[in-house]
Amino acid sequence: MFQKILIANRGEIALRVLRACKELGIQTVVVHSTADADAMHVRLADESVCIGPPPSRDSYLNIHQIVAACEITGADAVHPGYGFLSENAKFADILAAHNITFIGPSGDHIRIMGDKIEAKRTAKRLGIPVVPGSDGAVTDQKEAKRIAAEIGYPVIIKASAGGGGRGMKVALTEADLEIALQTASTEAGAAFGDDAVYIEKYLEKPRHIEVQVFGDGFGRGVHFGERDCSLQRRHQKVWEEAPSPALNAEERARIGDICAKAIADLGYSGAGTIEFLYENGEFYFIEMNTRLQVEHPVTEAITGIDLVHEQIRVASGGGLSVKQEDIKFNGHAIECRINAEDPRTFTPSPGTITHFHTPGGLGIRVDSGVYSGYKIPPYYDSLIGKLIVHGRNRVECMMRLRRALDEFVVDGIKTTLPLFRDLVGNADIANGDYDIHWLEKYLAKGE
Ligand code: ADP
User: Fold this and answer.
1) Of the listed 291, 337, 394, 400, which one is catalytic?
2) What percentage of the chain has pLDDT greater than the value 90?
3) Which mutation among 134, 168, 227 tests ligand 1's pocket best, with the greatest number of atoms within 8 A of CB?
Protein backbone atom coordinates (compact mmCIF):
# COMPACT_ATOMS: atom_id res chain seq x y z
CA MET A 1 0.00 0.00 0.00
CA PHE A 2 1.13 3.58 -0.60
CA GLN A 3 2.80 5.60 2.17
CA LYS A 4 1.96 9.03 0.85
CA ILE A 5 -0.44 10.20 -1.86
CA LEU A 6 -0.25 13.57 -3.57
CA ILE A 7 -3.64 14.96 -4.60
CA ALA A 8 -3.33 16.95 -7.83
CA ASN A 9 -6.65 18.74 -7.69
CA ARG A 10 -8.71 21.27 -5.73
CA GLY A 11 -12.21 21.86 -4.38
CA GLU A 12 -14.63 19.17 -3.29
CA ILE A 13 -12.82 16.36 -5.11
CA ALA A 14 -9.48 17.11 -3.41
CA LEU A 15 -11.27 16.83 -0.07
CA ARG A 16 -13.09 13.67 -1.19
CA VAL A 17 -9.80 11.94 -2.05
CA LEU A 18 -8.13 13.25 1.10
CA ARG A 19 -10.86 11.68 3.24
CA ALA A 20 -10.33 8.30 1.59
CA CYS A 21 -6.56 8.51 2.18
CA LYS A 22 -7.06 9.36 5.86
CA GLU A 23 -9.41 6.41 6.29
CA LEU A 24 -6.79 4.11 4.76
CA GLY A 25 -4.06 5.55 7.00
CA ILE A 26 -2.14 7.06 4.08
CA GLN A 27 -0.27 10.36 4.46
CA THR A 28 -1.54 13.18 2.22
CA VAL A 29 0.10 15.98 0.28
CA VAL A 30 -1.96 18.57 -1.55
CA VAL A 31 -0.75 21.00 -4.16
CA HIS A 32 -2.46 24.35 -4.58
CA SER A 33 -2.29 27.64 -6.43
CA THR A 34 -1.82 30.93 -4.57
CA ALA A 35 -5.58 31.51 -4.96
CA ASP A 36 -6.33 28.36 -2.93
CA ALA A 37 -4.07 28.95 0.07
CA ASP A 38 -7.17 29.07 2.34
CA ALA A 39 -8.95 26.11 0.81
CA MET A 40 -10.29 23.35 3.06
CA HIS A 41 -8.21 20.61 1.42
CA VAL A 42 -5.06 22.64 2.16
CA ARG A 43 -6.07 23.03 5.81
CA LEU A 44 -6.79 19.34 6.29
CA ALA A 45 -3.84 17.79 4.45
CA ASP A 46 -0.73 16.56 6.23
CA GLU A 47 1.47 18.61 3.88
CA SER A 48 0.82 21.20 1.21
CA VAL A 49 2.92 22.66 -1.58
CA CYS A 50 2.10 25.88 -3.41
CA ILE A 51 2.76 25.17 -7.08
CA GLY A 52 2.03 28.47 -8.78
CA PRO A 53 -0.22 31.41 -9.52
CA PRO A 54 -4.01 31.17 -9.99
CA PRO A 55 -4.33 30.30 -13.72
CA SER A 56 -4.69 26.51 -14.03
CA ARG A 57 -2.06 26.23 -16.76
CA ASP A 58 0.51 27.65 -14.31
CA SER A 59 -0.53 25.51 -11.33
CA TYR A 60 -2.99 22.58 -11.51
CA LEU A 61 -1.95 21.78 -15.09
CA ASN A 62 1.76 22.35 -14.53
CA ILE A 63 3.24 18.85 -14.75
CA HIS A 64 6.80 19.89 -13.85
CA GLN A 65 5.70 21.58 -10.66
CA ILE A 66 3.57 18.64 -9.61
CA VAL A 67 6.33 16.10 -10.25
CA ALA A 68 8.72 18.37 -8.29
CA ALA A 69 6.20 18.46 -5.41
CA CYS A 70 6.17 14.64 -5.41
CA GLU A 71 9.97 14.54 -5.29
CA ILE A 72 10.19 17.12 -2.49
CA THR A 73 7.59 15.43 -0.29
CA GLY A 74 8.40 11.82 -1.18
CA ALA A 75 4.90 11.02 -2.39
CA ASP A 76 4.72 7.58 -3.99
CA ALA A 77 1.42 8.03 -5.82
CA VAL A 78 -0.73 10.77 -7.34
CA HIS A 79 -4.52 10.92 -7.38
CA PRO A 80 -5.59 13.28 -10.18
CA GLY A 81 -9.30 13.62 -9.23
CA TYR A 82 -11.38 14.62 -12.28
CA GLY A 83 -10.68 17.40 -14.81
CA PHE A 84 -7.19 18.99 -14.84
CA LEU A 85 -4.60 16.24 -15.54
CA SER A 86 -6.86 13.26 -14.86
CA GLU A 87 -7.08 12.26 -18.54
CA ASN A 88 -3.65 13.42 -19.62
CA ALA A 89 -1.73 10.40 -20.94
CA LYS A 90 1.56 12.29 -20.92
CA PHE A 91 1.17 13.02 -17.21
CA ALA A 92 0.55 9.32 -16.49
CA ASP A 93 3.65 8.39 -18.55
CA ILE A 94 5.87 10.99 -16.87
CA LEU A 95 4.84 9.83 -13.40
CA ALA A 96 5.56 6.22 -14.39
CA ALA A 97 9.01 7.27 -15.63
CA HIS A 98 9.65 8.77 -12.17
CA ASN A 99 8.45 5.64 -10.37
CA ILE A 100 5.42 7.44 -9.03
CA THR A 101 2.11 5.61 -9.38
CA PHE A 102 -0.64 7.39 -11.26
CA ILE A 103 -3.92 6.38 -9.60
CA GLY A 104 -5.71 5.61 -12.83
CA PRO A 105 -5.30 3.50 -15.96
CA SER A 106 -2.22 3.26 -18.16
CA GLY A 107 -1.20 6.15 -20.40
CA ASP A 108 -2.04 3.95 -23.40
CA HIS A 109 -5.62 3.36 -22.28
CA ILE A 110 -6.08 7.08 -21.60
CA ARG A 111 -4.75 7.80 -25.10
CA ILE A 112 -7.11 5.36 -26.84
CA MET A 113 -10.18 6.72 -25.09
CA GLY A 114 -9.10 10.35 -25.54
CA ASP A 115 -9.34 10.01 -29.31
CA LYS A 116 -13.03 9.60 -30.06
CA ILE A 117 -12.60 7.76 -33.37
CA GLU A 118 -10.13 5.34 -31.81
CA ALA A 119 -12.36 4.95 -28.73
CA LYS A 120 -15.38 4.09 -30.86
CA ARG A 121 -13.39 1.61 -32.93
CA THR A 122 -12.11 -0.03 -29.74
CA ALA A 123 -15.60 -0.12 -28.22
CA LYS A 124 -16.97 -1.81 -31.33
CA ARG A 125 -14.18 -4.38 -31.30
CA LEU A 126 -14.95 -5.14 -27.65
CA GLY A 127 -18.60 -5.83 -28.42
CA ILE A 128 -20.01 -2.59 -27.04
CA PRO A 129 -22.96 -1.26 -29.09
CA VAL A 130 -22.06 2.01 -30.84
CA VAL A 131 -24.04 4.72 -32.67
CA PRO A 132 -24.33 3.82 -36.37
CA GLY A 133 -22.01 6.00 -38.45
CA SER A 134 -18.74 6.27 -40.32
CA ASP A 135 -16.00 3.79 -39.47
CA GLY A 136 -13.39 6.47 -39.02
CA ALA A 137 -12.65 10.03 -40.06
CA VAL A 138 -14.59 11.48 -43.01
CA THR A 139 -13.04 14.10 -45.26
CA ASP A 140 -14.74 13.68 -48.57
CA GLN A 141 -18.21 15.22 -49.16
CA LYS A 142 -19.27 12.34 -51.41
CA GLU A 143 -18.38 9.74 -48.81
CA ALA A 144 -20.16 11.81 -46.15
CA LYS A 145 -23.33 11.93 -48.24
CA ARG A 146 -23.23 8.23 -48.88
CA ILE A 147 -22.82 7.38 -45.19
CA ALA A 148 -25.50 9.86 -44.12
CA ALA A 149 -27.96 8.46 -46.66
CA GLU A 150 -27.19 4.96 -45.43
CA ILE A 151 -27.75 5.69 -41.72
CA GLY A 152 -30.55 8.22 -42.39
CA TYR A 153 -30.94 11.87 -41.36
CA PRO A 154 -30.55 13.69 -39.02
CA VAL A 155 -26.83 13.07 -38.53
CA ILE A 156 -24.25 14.64 -36.22
CA ILE A 157 -20.68 15.53 -37.19
CA LYS A 158 -18.28 15.18 -34.26
CA ALA A 159 -14.63 16.11 -33.77
CA SER A 160 -12.31 13.19 -33.09
CA ALA A 161 -10.38 15.30 -30.59
CA GLY A 162 -13.58 16.88 -29.15
CA GLY A 163 -14.53 17.08 -25.51
CA GLY A 164 -16.76 18.95 -23.11
CA GLY A 165 -19.62 18.95 -25.60
CA ARG A 166 -17.70 21.06 -28.10
CA GLY A 167 -17.09 20.50 -31.80
CA MET A 168 -20.43 18.99 -32.84
CA LYS A 169 -22.75 19.96 -35.69
CA VAL A 170 -26.15 18.50 -36.59
CA ALA A 171 -27.29 18.13 -40.20
CA LEU A 172 -31.04 17.66 -40.56
CA THR A 173 -30.99 17.04 -44.32
CA GLU A 174 -28.50 16.47 -47.11
CA ALA A 175 -28.65 20.20 -47.87
CA ASP A 176 -27.12 20.94 -44.44
CA LEU A 177 -24.45 18.29 -44.66
CA GLU A 178 -21.82 20.04 -46.74
CA ILE A 179 -21.69 23.15 -44.57
CA ALA A 180 -21.92 21.15 -41.31
CA LEU A 181 -18.96 19.01 -42.35
CA GLN A 182 -16.90 22.03 -43.31
CA THR A 183 -17.63 24.10 -40.19
CA ALA A 184 -17.17 21.14 -37.84
CA SER A 185 -13.80 20.34 -39.38
CA THR A 186 -12.57 23.96 -39.39
CA GLU A 187 -13.73 24.51 -35.81
CA ALA A 188 -12.13 21.26 -34.65
CA GLY A 189 -8.83 22.27 -36.26
CA ALA A 190 -8.92 25.65 -34.53
CA ALA A 191 -10.06 24.37 -31.11
CA PHE A 192 -8.19 21.07 -30.82
CA GLY A 193 -5.40 21.28 -33.41
CA ASP A 194 -6.87 18.23 -35.17
CA ASP A 195 -9.50 18.64 -37.89
CA ALA A 196 -10.56 14.97 -38.08
CA VAL A 197 -14.33 14.57 -37.85
CA TYR A 198 -16.70 11.62 -38.09
CA ILE A 199 -20.41 11.10 -38.72
CA GLU A 200 -23.03 9.51 -36.50
CA LYS A 201 -26.76 9.07 -36.54
CA TYR A 202 -28.26 11.90 -34.50
CA LEU A 203 -30.52 10.44 -31.82
CA GLU A 204 -33.48 12.71 -31.19
CA LYS A 205 -34.72 11.90 -27.71
CA PRO A 206 -32.10 9.80 -25.97
CA ARG A 207 -31.27 9.53 -22.30
CA HIS A 208 -27.66 9.70 -21.11
CA ILE A 209 -26.91 6.48 -19.28
CA GLU A 210 -23.41 5.59 -18.13
CA VAL A 211 -21.98 2.45 -16.59
CA GLN A 212 -19.43 2.61 -13.77
CA VAL A 213 -16.74 0.03 -14.42
CA PHE A 214 -13.53 -1.09 -12.75
CA GLY A 215 -10.60 -3.16 -13.91
CA ASP A 216 -8.86 -4.86 -10.99
CA GLY A 217 -5.36 -4.75 -12.49
CA PHE A 218 -5.28 -8.57 -12.89
CA GLY A 219 -7.34 -8.76 -16.05
CA ARG A 220 -10.76 -8.91 -14.41
CA GLY A 221 -13.55 -6.38 -14.92
CA VAL A 222 -16.66 -5.55 -12.89
CA HIS A 223 -19.49 -3.04 -13.18
CA PHE A 224 -21.18 -1.03 -10.43
CA GLY A 225 -24.44 -0.42 -12.30
CA GLU A 226 -25.52 2.67 -14.17
CA ARG A 227 -26.19 6.35 -13.59
CA ASP A 228 -28.74 8.42 -15.47
CA CYS A 229 -27.32 11.86 -16.25
CA SER A 230 -29.90 13.02 -18.78
CA LEU A 231 -30.62 16.31 -17.03
CA GLN A 232 -28.02 18.50 -18.73
CA ARG A 233 -27.52 22.06 -19.80
CA ARG A 234 -25.09 22.68 -22.66
CA HIS A 235 -23.92 19.08 -22.31
CA GLN A 236 -23.05 19.76 -18.65
CA LYS A 237 -24.64 17.38 -16.18
CA VAL A 238 -26.81 19.04 -13.55
CA TRP A 239 -28.65 16.18 -11.77
CA GLU A 240 -27.63 12.53 -11.74
CA GLU A 241 -29.34 9.47 -10.39
CA ALA A 242 -28.82 5.77 -9.84
CA PRO A 243 -30.42 3.52 -10.85
CA SER A 244 -31.85 5.01 -14.05
CA PRO A 245 -35.64 5.38 -13.85
CA ALA A 246 -35.76 4.19 -17.48
CA LEU A 247 -34.05 0.78 -17.28
CA ASN A 248 -35.50 -2.55 -16.28
CA ALA A 249 -33.50 -5.28 -14.53
CA GLU A 250 -32.84 -7.21 -17.77
CA GLU A 251 -31.43 -4.14 -19.58
CA ARG A 252 -29.31 -3.22 -16.56
CA ALA A 253 -27.77 -6.68 -16.35
CA ARG A 254 -27.24 -6.86 -20.12
CA ILE A 255 -25.36 -3.58 -20.50
CA GLY A 256 -23.49 -4.07 -17.22
CA ASP A 257 -22.21 -7.48 -18.33
CA ILE A 258 -21.16 -6.17 -21.75
CA CYS A 259 -19.17 -3.36 -20.09
CA ALA A 260 -17.52 -5.56 -17.45
CA LYS A 261 -16.43 -8.05 -20.11
CA ALA A 262 -15.07 -5.26 -22.33
CA ILE A 263 -13.00 -3.89 -19.44
CA ALA A 264 -11.57 -7.34 -18.79
CA ASP A 265 -10.74 -7.88 -22.49
CA LEU A 266 -9.08 -4.47 -22.66
CA GLY A 267 -6.92 -5.29 -19.63
CA TYR A 268 -8.00 -1.98 -18.15
CA SER A 269 -6.98 -1.04 -14.62
CA GLY A 270 -8.85 1.29 -12.25
CA ALA A 271 -12.10 3.23 -12.47
CA GLY A 272 -13.80 4.14 -15.71
CA THR A 273 -17.17 5.17 -17.04
CA ILE A 274 -18.64 3.95 -20.29
CA GLU A 275 -21.15 6.51 -21.53
CA PHE A 276 -24.14 5.69 -23.69
CA LEU A 277 -27.08 7.36 -25.27
CA TYR A 278 -30.17 5.20 -24.71
CA GLU A 279 -33.22 5.32 -26.95
CA ASN A 280 -36.06 2.84 -27.57
CA GLY A 281 -34.44 0.11 -25.52
CA GLU A 282 -31.07 0.35 -27.31
CA PHE A 283 -27.70 1.53 -25.96
CA TYR A 284 -25.27 3.49 -28.12
CA PHE A 285 -21.69 4.07 -26.89
CA ILE A 286 -20.53 7.69 -27.09
CA GLU A 287 -17.34 7.77 -25.04
CA MET A 288 -15.40 6.36 -22.13
CA ASN A 289 -14.00 8.48 -19.32
CA THR A 290 -10.85 7.01 -17.84
CA ARG A 291 -11.17 8.57 -14.38
CA LEU A 292 -13.45 9.07 -11.40
CA GLN A 293 -16.58 11.06 -12.30
CA VAL A 294 -18.12 14.00 -10.44
CA GLU A 295 -21.28 11.92 -9.99
CA HIS A 296 -19.60 8.82 -8.51
CA PRO A 297 -21.30 9.31 -5.10
CA VAL A 298 -24.71 8.14 -6.36
CA THR A 299 -23.11 4.80 -7.20
CA GLU A 300 -21.46 4.72 -3.77
CA ALA A 301 -24.84 5.42 -2.16
CA ILE A 302 -26.61 2.48 -3.79
CA THR A 303 -23.71 0.01 -3.51
CA GLY A 304 -22.23 1.08 -0.16
CA ILE A 305 -18.75 0.82 -1.70
CA ASP A 306 -16.16 3.61 -1.51
CA LEU A 307 -14.90 3.94 -5.08
CA VAL A 308 -11.84 6.01 -4.13
CA HIS A 309 -10.74 3.27 -1.70
CA GLU A 310 -11.08 0.84 -4.60
CA GLN A 311 -9.05 3.08 -6.93
CA ILE A 312 -6.24 3.28 -4.39
CA ARG A 313 -6.31 -0.50 -3.74
CA VAL A 314 -6.18 -1.32 -7.44
CA ALA A 315 -3.39 1.18 -8.17
CA SER A 316 -1.30 -0.26 -5.34
CA GLY A 317 -1.65 -3.77 -6.78
CA GLY A 318 -4.10 -5.01 -4.15
CA GLY A 319 -7.03 -5.62 -6.52
CA LEU A 320 -10.67 -4.86 -5.79
CA SER A 321 -12.23 -5.59 -2.40
CA VAL A 322 -15.33 -7.02 -4.13
CA LYS A 323 -16.28 -9.46 -6.85
CA GLN A 324 -19.19 -8.87 -9.21
CA GLU A 325 -21.52 -11.04 -7.12
CA ASP A 326 -20.75 -8.95 -3.99
CA ILE A 327 -21.98 -5.77 -5.63
CA LYS A 328 -25.63 -5.34 -4.65
CA PHE A 329 -27.84 -2.39 -5.50
CA ASN A 330 -29.84 -0.92 -2.68
CA GLY A 331 -32.45 1.82 -3.08
CA HIS A 332 -32.13 5.01 -5.07
CA ALA A 333 -29.77 8.01 -5.00
CA ILE A 334 -29.85 11.47 -6.59
CA GLU A 335 -27.07 14.04 -6.80
CA CYS A 336 -27.59 17.78 -7.37
CA ARG A 337 -24.57 19.81 -8.49
CA ILE A 338 -24.58 23.07 -6.59
CA ASN A 339 -22.80 25.71 -8.62
CA ALA A 340 -21.95 29.30 -7.72
CA GLU A 341 -24.06 30.52 -10.63
CA ASP A 342 -27.26 32.38 -11.30
CA PRO A 343 -29.96 29.64 -11.31
CA ARG A 344 -31.54 30.95 -14.54
CA THR A 345 -28.74 32.44 -16.63
CA PHE A 346 -25.95 30.26 -15.21
CA THR A 347 -23.51 33.16 -15.19
CA PRO A 348 -20.82 32.51 -12.57
CA SER A 349 -21.27 34.20 -9.20
CA PRO A 350 -17.94 34.16 -7.38
CA GLY A 351 -17.56 36.09 -4.10
CA THR A 352 -17.63 35.47 -0.37
CA ILE A 353 -19.99 32.91 1.13
CA THR A 354 -21.27 34.73 4.21
CA HIS A 355 -23.16 31.77 5.63
CA PHE A 356 -23.01 28.07 4.71
CA HIS A 357 -25.28 25.54 6.37
CA THR A 358 -25.63 22.02 5.04
CA PRO A 359 -28.57 19.66 5.56
CA GLY A 360 -28.18 16.47 7.57
CA GLY A 361 -30.08 13.39 8.66
CA LEU A 362 -30.44 9.87 7.35
CA GLY A 363 -29.44 9.37 3.72
CA ILE A 364 -27.89 12.82 3.24
CA ARG A 365 -24.32 13.41 2.03
CA VAL A 366 -22.78 16.76 1.16
CA ASP A 367 -19.42 16.80 -0.62
CA SER A 368 -18.09 20.33 -0.59
CA GLY A 369 -14.87 22.18 0.07
CA VAL A 370 -16.42 25.50 1.10
CA TYR A 371 -17.35 27.03 4.48
CA SER A 372 -18.85 30.22 5.97
CA GLY A 373 -16.48 33.10 5.18
CA TYR A 374 -14.88 31.27 2.22
CA LYS A 375 -14.09 33.46 -0.78
CA ILE A 376 -14.71 31.65 -4.08
CA PRO A 377 -11.85 32.44 -6.47
CA PRO A 378 -13.01 33.41 -9.96
CA TYR A 379 -10.46 31.24 -11.79
CA TYR A 380 -11.96 27.78 -11.64
CA ASP A 381 -15.05 25.66 -12.18
CA SER A 382 -18.15 27.00 -10.39
CA LEU A 383 -19.03 23.72 -8.60
CA ILE A 384 -19.11 24.47 -4.85
CA GLY A 385 -20.75 21.33 -3.59
CA LYS A 386 -22.78 18.24 -4.30
CA LEU A 387 -25.86 17.14 -2.42
CA ILE A 388 -26.34 13.39 -2.58
CA VAL A 389 -29.52 11.87 -1.18
CA HIS A 390 -30.31 8.20 -0.72
CA GLY A 391 -33.67 6.53 -0.08
CA ARG A 392 -35.05 2.99 -0.11
CA ASN A 393 -36.77 3.81 -3.39
CA ARG A 394 -37.07 6.79 -5.75
CA VAL A 395 -40.17 8.20 -4.02
CA GLU A 396 -38.47 8.23 -0.62
CA CYS A 397 -35.32 9.68 -2.18
CA MET A 398 -37.29 12.56 -3.73
CA MET A 399 -39.12 13.27 -0.44
CA ARG A 400 -35.81 13.44 1.38
CA LEU A 401 -34.22 15.53 -1.37
CA ARG A 402 -36.99 18.12 -1.16
CA ARG A 403 -36.51 18.39 2.60
CA ALA A 404 -32.70 18.59 2.31
CA LEU A 405 -32.88 21.34 -0.32
CA ASP A 406 -35.12 23.37 2.02
CA GLU A 407 -32.49 23.08 4.76
CA PHE A 408 -29.52 24.06 2.60
CA VAL A 409 -28.38 27.67 3.15
CA VAL A 410 -25.71 29.40 1.04
CA ASP A 411 -25.72 33.18 1.61
CA GLY A 412 -23.64 35.88 -0.05
CA ILE A 413 -23.55 34.45 -3.59
CA LYS A 414 -26.03 33.08 -6.11
CA THR A 415 -26.28 29.32 -6.44
CA THR A 416 -28.23 26.77 -8.46
CA LEU A 417 -30.15 25.62 -5.34
CA PRO A 418 -33.40 27.39 -6.43
CA LEU A 419 -33.34 25.43 -9.71
CA PHE A 420 -33.29 22.13 -7.79
CA ARG A 421 -36.12 23.31 -5.51
CA ASP A 422 -38.17 23.85 -8.70
CA LEU A 423 -37.13 20.54 -10.23
CA VAL A 424 -38.15 18.38 -7.24
CA GLY A 425 -41.69 19.74 -7.58
CA ASN A 426 -41.97 19.05 -11.31
CA ALA A 427 -44.27 16.24 -12.50
CA ASP A 428 -41.94 14.97 -15.28
CA ILE A 429 -39.04 14.77 -12.84
CA ALA A 430 -41.23 13.03 -10.28
CA ASN A 431 -42.14 10.47 -12.95
CA GLY A 432 -38.55 10.10 -14.16
CA ASP A 433 -39.86 11.12 -17.57
CA TYR A 434 -37.08 13.16 -19.20
CA ASP A 435 -34.48 12.96 -21.96
CA ILE A 436 -31.23 14.88 -22.62
CA HIS A 437 -33.13 17.89 -24.01
CA TRP A 438 -35.71 18.16 -21.23
CA LEU A 439 -33.83 20.61 -19.00
CA GLU A 440 -32.96 23.06 -21.78
CA LYS A 441 -36.60 23.11 -22.94
CA TYR A 442 -37.74 23.64 -19.36
CA LEU A 443 -35.28 26.52 -18.85
CA ALA A 444 -36.29 28.09 -22.19
CA LYS A 445 -39.92 28.13 -21.06
CA GLY A 446 -38.81 30.03 -17.95
CA GLU A 447 -41.35 28.22 -15.76
P1 ADP B 1 -17.99 15.26 -25.27
O2 ADP B 1 -16.76 14.42 -25.14
O3 ADP B 1 -17.70 16.56 -25.97
O4 ADP B 1 -18.75 15.41 -24.01
P5 ADP B 1 -19.87 13.22 -26.23
O6 ADP B 1 -19.61 12.34 -27.40
O7 ADP B 1 -19.79 12.62 -24.88
O8 ADP B 1 -18.92 14.52 -26.34
O9 ADP B 1 -21.29 13.88 -26.42
C10 ADP B 1 -21.73 14.90 -25.56
C11 ADP B 1 -23.22 15.09 -25.69
O12 ADP B 1 -23.59 15.41 -27.05
C13 ADP B 1 -24.04 13.88 -25.36
O14 ADP B 1 -24.28 13.75 -23.96
C15 ADP B 1 -25.31 14.18 -26.12
O16 ADP B 1 -26.07 15.15 -25.41
C17 ADP B 1 -24.82 14.81 -27.40
N18 ADP B 1 -24.58 13.81 -28.46
C19 ADP B 1 -23.42 13.19 -28.76
N20 ADP B 1 -23.58 12.29 -29.76
C21 ADP B 1 -24.88 12.33 -30.11
C22 ADP B 1 -25.69 11.63 -31.07
N23 ADP B 1 -25.18 10.71 -31.88
N24 ADP B 1 -27.01 11.95 -31.12
C25 ADP B 1 -27.54 12.87 -30.30
N26 ADP B 1 -26.85 13.57 -29.38
C27 ADP B 1 -25.53 13.31 -29.27
Assistant:
1) 291
2) 96
3) 168
